[in-house]
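We were asked to recover a plausible sequence for a given structure. The inputs and outputs are reproduced exactly as logged, with field labels preserved.

PROBLEM: sequence recovery
POSITIONS: 369
GIVEN STRUCTURE:
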């Protein structure tokens, strides 16, 4: 049997989604152009962004779209504030360095949600800041940042907001009618449960239209990609045809299952089953429940000398489940994803597999205290 991916993308997809990739599409063909248009229309509708926004799909993993959004929407003399509480925030800071754009980092602890009051103070103190780049769910730990509060402050101060919603889009509510942003970025292989290979940026149309000359890269210029698509209905360069076909099917299932509310409900059940099962084994979560998004959970590694992650990982994989290493430097952790075409029963089976593996490894001390 194929292993279950308890990783936040690539993740476990449904058989229908995988089957949708058994067709070859011509990239110039009208049928493929219609597929692109229908997917983009639905990606806008999922966040109620039909009126003032445009959806620009882009080849590549999620980071390509994050970099393209920053490089296209932030002017060359712009300055970006990055509230930093984890590894994907730090990746934005690195991207800004490559783009040669000015950046101000607002350091936070990894167990501390981005603080709207500190963001407001930073914007008040520095009128040169043009944009805030905010990660919604920081997948490095699983923490959920208070996006609506932050968006309100950024809007009040008349700055642009660029949101990395990679691991939240489609599951955590985001409403473009009430939340103002210049760009909202996500990808095919996350909470929509498609396969990896394309990202997309929901851009505020006025911001996109005003971004001419910002991008230092042809391939990553979202304005050029969008204008070409508007004119021709086609992607500028070779599109990820099979990925798009799989995403179309994945969105059909998303809608049939009840959309964002249903997805959030299933992921919340998955997360609850995982956390309660792991706590019963003695595991401790890195985050308190109040800060935990139901997307990915970071657990402290057992302190028992018989434990090491690579052996643990291999043994759990042999029982059919793929775990994820931790991303923290200061504490030893590992992560388990709650997203993908799986339900709480699967998470319960994963916990049973983990319990068996701990027994096989002779790990007795699981809790740190
Ligand atoms: C918050 C966040 N940002 C960006 C990314 C993009 O990563 P990648 O380029 O590996 O798809 C991810 C992937 O998991 C993510 O969780």
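RECOVERED SEQUENCE:
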């Amino acid at each position: 049997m194929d292993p279950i991916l308890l990783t936040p993308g690539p993740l476990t997809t449904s058989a229908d989604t995988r089957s949708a990739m058994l067709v070859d599409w011509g990239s110039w063909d009208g049928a493929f152009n219609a597929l692109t248009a229908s997917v983009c229309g639905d990606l806008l509708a999922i966040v109620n962004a039909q009126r003032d926004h445009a959806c620009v799909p882009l080849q590549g993993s999620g980071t390509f779209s994050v970099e393209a959004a920053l490089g296209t929407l932030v002017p060359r003399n712009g300055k970006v504030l990055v509230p930093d509480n984890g590894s994907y925030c730090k990746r934005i800071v690195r991207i800004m360095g490559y783009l040669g754009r000015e950046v101000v980092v607002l350091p936070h602890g990894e167990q501390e949600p981005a603080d709207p009051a500190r963001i407001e103070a930073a914007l008040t103190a520095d009128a040169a800041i043009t944009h805030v780049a905010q990660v919604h769910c920081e997948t490095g730990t699983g923490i959920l940042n208070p996006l609506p509060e932050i968006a309100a402050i950024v809007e009040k101060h008349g700055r642009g907001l660029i949101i990395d919603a990679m691991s939240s889009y489609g599951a955590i509510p985001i409403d473009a009618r009430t939340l103002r942003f210049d760009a909202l970025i996500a990808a095919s292989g996350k909470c929509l449960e498609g396969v990896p290979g394309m990202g997309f940026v929901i851009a505020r149309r006025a911001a996109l239209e005003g971004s001419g000359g910002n991008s230092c890269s042809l391939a990553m210029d979202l304005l050029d990609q969008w204008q070409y698509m508007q004119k021709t209905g086609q992607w500028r360069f070779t599109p990820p045809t099979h990925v798009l076909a799989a995403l179309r099917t994945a969105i059909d299932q998303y809608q049939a299952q009840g959309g964002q509310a249903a997805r959030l409900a299933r992921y919340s059940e998955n997360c609850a089953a995982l956390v309660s099962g792991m706590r019963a084994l003695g595991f401790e979560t890195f985050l308190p429940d109040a800060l935990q998004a139901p997307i990915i959970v970071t657990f402290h590694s057992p302190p028992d000398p018989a434990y090491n992650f690579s052996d643990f990982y291999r043994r759990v994989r042999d029982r059919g489940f793929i775990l994820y290493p931790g991303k923290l430097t200061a504490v030893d952790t590992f992560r388990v994803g709650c997203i993908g075409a799986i339900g709480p029963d699967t998470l319960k089976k994963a916990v049973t597999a983990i319990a068996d593996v701990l027994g096989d490894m002779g790990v007795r001390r699981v809790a740190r205290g």
